[in-house]
Automatic annotation (TrEMBL):
Keyword presence, Manganese: no
Transmembrane annotation, as ranges: 6-27, 39-56, 62-80, 92-109
Family matches, as PANTHER family: UDP-N-ACETYLMURAMOYL-TRIPEPTIDE--D-ALANYL-D-ALANINE LIGASE
Organism whose genome encodes this protein: Campylobacter insulaenigrae
Protein's name according to its UniProt entry: UDP-N-acetylmuramoyl-tripeptide--D-alanyl-D-alanine ligase
GO function terms (MF aspect): ligase activity
Domain Mur ligase central: 156-264
Presence of keyword Coiled coil: no
Pfam families hit by this protein: Mur_ligase_M (PF08245)
Highest taxon in the source lineage: Bacteria
The organism's taxonomic lineage, starting at the top: Bacteria, Pseudomonadati, Campylobacterota, Epsilonproteobacteria, Campylobacterales
Key words of the record: ATP-binding, Ligase, Membrane, Nucleotide-binding, Transmembrane, Transmembrane helix
InterPro entries per the UniProt record, alphabetical: Mur-like_cat_sf, Mur_ligase_C_dom_sf, Mur_ligase_cen, MurCDEF_CellWall_CoF430Synth
């Protein structure tokens, strides 16, 4: 009986841990093997329990493993309670646990207790089922797109700013066309497929799609599936450099969006280094402060002035892509000026939460050097104490965070570091008063103790607790 309980306990603890981490990293084993932020957790919840089980199996002393299992359950529960991204019991996760239970039962009936075989079979079976499901839903979504012969698809990709461009473009076009956009930050092939199958109305005229990537051919896969008529490639930077290794690899991956069989027109940022004219060349006279943004766009020899309450000079570049696309679609320039003036901040992107009693700005989804540094320069003009809450920049090299620290030192008075992932390098290069949170759950308490009325508080970027 102790042998059976040990076998089931091993499968449960490793299975739960693996499916949780896979969900965090889009079910890519390569990412949890080579890009996991806390590799010691793999030792705690995979290596340690398995070695403990083998020792118990060898000496036929399963109480040793059960004590190990009890310890890991207590410690794992403690860590899990602090996580801000807990396991979501999707249909896929439920299917995995069904497979794990069935294979564990099968191996028990065969009296076969080597440990990880049931787990391996459960994952293989689960991934096979998901692959078959994916093929079915991809074909269903493709047929739905082809049935709507009037549908125009705008594909948007960039190292950063693509979600903002998508949302701004939707707001600008929605009064003239029946539009639909991918929700939130959905930007993977399967996320897009799900949106098409569940949300895209057959009468939609323009479908605005955000495309993201973690490796070469990710954008190509989406492009070949959608075959968009229009494409916007925003600024190319060092986001996800950890995966791509070089900026040139990032650039080539983003340019995969041009390989559509139906491409009619594209709008490119100058950082793409492509052969054509760039939409940011039509942009000039940018003025940004804590009250809003003003800039000019030049079309056919005429200059037009745009005003918006949006914060950040980088939003002028995002908007210039949207305005260029809308102008090509023959939206009247007066309507464009009015639409831009009415735009609201995208959630968590330089969104003003309050001005009194504390000036609070939520820029939690801004995770690149250019956008973060510009938001810091914006805060520098504030006449009062300035507090920064940030984990730094993730998935980039150390140089990017060192450069960021220099700007932080010039623009703020106090810094709260919210993640361990960059804490060592931030502590080393930030000369201001600062504090590192061991747990983000402490943040509200620290803010209450460390800030006062009339302080400016900028929430810059965000990183989950597992980083």
């Amino acid at each position: 009986m102790l042998e059976i309980i040990s076998f089931l306990g091993l499968n449960f603890i490793i299975g739960f841990y693996l499916i949780l981490t896979l969900q965090w990293y889009s079910y890519k084993f390569s990412r949890i093997l080579f890009h996991f932020a806390k590799p010691l957790w793999h030792i705690y919840f995979i290596v340690f329990p398995y070695l403990s089980f083998l020792v118990s199996l060898y000496f036929n002393e399963y109480m040793f493993f059960l004590l190990t299992f009890l310890f890991l359950i207590i410690y794992g529960s403690y860590l899990y309670k602090k996580l801000d991204k807990k396991l979501i019991f999707t249909a896929r996760v439920k299917r995995f646990f069904v497979c794990l239970f069935l294979f564990s039962l099968l191996f028990l009936l065969e009296n076969y207790f080597l440990g990880l075989e049931a787990l391996a079979c459960a994952f293989l079976c689960s991934f096979l089922v998901e692959k078959l499901n994916q093929l079915y839903f991809i074909k269903k979504a493709k047929n739905k797109i082809l049935k709507n012969t009037d549908l125009k698809i705008i594909l948007i990709t960039a190292s950063f700013g693509k979600t903002s461009i998508k949302n701004f473009l939707y707001e600008i076009l929605k009064d003239q066309y029946k539009c639909h956009k991918t929700p939130r930050s959905v930007n993977t092939l399967l996320g897009i497929v799900k949106d098409i199958n569940e949300n895209l109305d057959i009468s939609t005229q323009i479908y605005i799609v955000e495309a993201g990537a973690r490796k070469r051919n990710d954008i190509l896969e989406i492009t070949q599936f959608l075959n968009p008529q229009f494409c916007i490639i925003g600024e190319i930077g060092l986001a996800h450099l950890e995966y791509f290794k070089t900026q040139e690899n990032i650039r080539q991956t983003k340019l995969e969006a041009l390989k559509s069989n139906r491409l009619e027109k594209y709008f490119l940022h100058s950082s793409t280094l492509y052969k054509d004219e760039f939409y940011d060349n039509f942009l000039s006279d940018i003025e940004a402060n804590l009250d809003g943004l003003k800039f000019k766009m030049n079309f056919n020899g005429e200059s037009y002035t745009f005003h918006t309450s949006l914060l950040g000079a980088f939003n002028a570049y995002n908007l210039s892509a949207c305005i260029s696309m809308a102008y090509f679609l023959k939206i009247d320039i007066k309507h464009l000026i009015k639409s831009v003036s009415n735009l609201k901040a995208v959630e968590h992107r330089l969104q003003i939460i309050s001005r009194k009693p504390k000036f609070i700005i939520d820029d939690g989804f801004n995770g690149n050097f250019k956008g973060m540094s510009q938001s810091y320069e914006l805060c520098k003009s504030y006449q009062g104490r300035r507090v920064l809450v940030t984990p730094g920049i993730v998935e980039v090299n150390h140089d990017e965070n060192i450069k960021l620290c220099k700007i932080i030192n010039e623009c703020f008075d106090f810094v709260i570091i919210t993640s361990e992932i960059n804490s060592a390098i931030l502590k080393k290069h930030i000369v201001l008063e600062n504090i590192v949170l061991k747990n983000k759950n402490q943040l509200i308490k620290i803010l209450a103790e460390s800030t006062k009325d009339n302080d400016l508080i900028l929430f810059s970027n965000d990183a989950p607790n597992f980083m």
